[in-house]
Amino acid sequence: MIKYGVLAGGLIAIFIVAFYVFGYEPTSLELTKSENLFDKNITKLNQTGKTDPNAIVTINGEKVPVDKNGNFYWVIDLKNGKNIINVTAKAPFKSKNQTYAIVNRAEDKDGVTGDWDWNNTYET
């Protein structure tokens, strides 16, 4: 009888760990586009967004601080040309969610321009 209790407890523990790691629904992830995305010379992107509280967010592989409401902010250096900004979020008991933004920075004799576009998030 005891061995069945241990077996059942072990299976429940495995289920809880699997549910925590793989999750049931995707972590919410939203990038914000605002008027203040770029600095004056479009050399830096001031990316903000929102996710689930307690989520772990990475931008281009770097862990980003998330506040208790799920808001995050990160400054990204931009190079001339196409810049791809990869963002992932993973909250406890939810699956990982990813999105990306593309920033095109062009510098020529007429000055500097910048364009920001993003895709829809997708669950992994």
UniProtKB/TrEMBL annotation:
<keyword id="KW-0812">Transmembrane</keyword>
<feature type="transmembrane region" description="Helical">
    <location>
        <begin position="6"/>
        <end position="24"/>
    </location>
</feature>
<dbReference type="InterPro" id="IPR013783">
    <property type="entry name" value="Ig-like_fold"/>
</dbReference>
<protein>
    <submittedName>
        <fullName>Uncharacterized protein</fullName>
    </submittedName>
</protein>
<keyword id="KW-1133">Transmembrane helix</keyword>
<keyword id="KW-0472">Membrane</keyword>
